[in-house]
Write a structure and sequence with these properties.
Layout (H helix, E strand, L loop, with lengths): L1 H9 L5 H20 L10 H13 L9 H20 L26 H8 L7 H16 L3 H5 L6 E2 L9 E5 L5 E5 L2 H19 L19 H14 L10 H12 L4 H8 L4 H22 L6
Antiparallel strand pairs: 1-2, 2-3
Helix pairs in contact: 2-4, 3-4, 6-8, 6-10, 10-12, 11-12
Length: 304
């Protein structure tokens, strides 16, 4: 198991959090095999792997039942381990090859209304440097569809446009897998970022040592993802929102409101940085639900 994890870390370059999850899953798998008297991977058959999947879904005295997505991640780890063992010559067959991860229920992204977004964006106190930063951060998240991790990873030099963001500039985002994309910055987000750059960031930067980061914390260093999430939650509370708000809320709103406005799903795919349009198409289900609601309330013969 250790050799496989080393392979994932060195040759596959998996993130530390992903490796930690894989380690926990595989340790649980090894413990499950040990209870069945199996000490070597060469002794494992398909029924043993399938039994592990069933145990994940049922749970035991120590572990609660796992959701389909969590159990699926564990099965992916186990399948990878057995493929690695076969390739290294430790086993003669791959008993996990035909064991499929459970398919999680398709959950629709959560999006709030435009008026709720406007209340959220207006919540920060722009009379302070931190308030200017928070308004710029929230406007940029909603105006570009950036992930929180992408937004806090921005440097000032990632803003493009001869006359500044408010003039219809662009922002360069580093997405998953090191894929970079260029996204337009709308005028509202551009003005908020400009105000922060002129009246907020210099004050915050004075407390630090010259960080190139666009969004700074009170000590002049780069704003963390956790702190940005705190900013979002605080704004939601200040705006009096009673709906659940997650780190991806403004990204979901960006996509849903674009599609509601008639944007092509392929364009939204590019703006979000999705590798496959299938990932983006889940947002079309949200807009279809919205169309049904409008139709049911507006058409004279929609209801008996």
């Amino acid at each position: 198991m250790t050799a496989y994890l080393d392979h994932l870390a060195v040759e596959r370059g998996l993130a530390a959090n992903t490796l930690s999850s894989y380690r926990r899953d595989l340790e649980r798998y090894v413990a499950h095999l040990a209870l069945d008297g199996l000490a070597r991977l060469a002794e494992v058959v398909e029924a043993d792997v399938a039994g592990f999947l069933a145990a994940l879904r049922v749970g035991d005295d120590v572990h609660p039942p796992l959701s389909a997505s969590s159990a699926g991640r564990a099965v992916v780890a186990v399948r990878g381990l057995h493929r690695f063992a076969l390739r290294e010559g430790w086993t003669q067959v791959d008993p996990a090859r035909d064991v499929r991860p459970p398919v999680p229920a398709r959950r629709l992204p959560k999006a709030i209304t435009v008026s709720q977004v406007e209340a959220l964006l207006a919540a920060p106190d722009e009379r302070t440097p931190l308030g200017l930063r928070d308004r710029a951060l929230l406007e940029l998240l909603y105006g570009t569809g950036a992930r929180i991790s992408e937004a806090v990873g921005l440097d000032v030099d990632d803003l493009e446009g001869a006359e500044g963001p408010a003039s219809g500039g662009l922002v360069r985002l580093d997405g998953k897998g090191g894929k970079q994309r260029i996204v337009p910055v709308g005028s509202y987000a551009g003005r908020a970022v400009d105000a922060y750059l002129v009246r907020g960031r210099p004050v915050l930067a004075a407390a630090g040592s010259g960080s190139p980061a666009l969004f700074l914390n009170a000590r002049g260093g780069r704003l963390s993802r956790q702190s940005a999430w705190t900013v979002l939650r605080a704004a939601a509370t200040a705006a009096g929102l009673t709906v659940d708000v997650s780190p991806h809320t403004l990204r979901h709103c960006f996509a849903t409101h674009l599609l509601d406005g008639g944007a092509d799903v392929r364009v939204v795919q590019e703006l979000l940085g999705h590798a496959s349009v299938t990932t983006t198409q889940v947002y079309t289900l949200v807009t279809v639900d919205r169309l049904r609601e409008v139709y049911a309330t507006a058409h004279p013969r929609a209801r008996a």
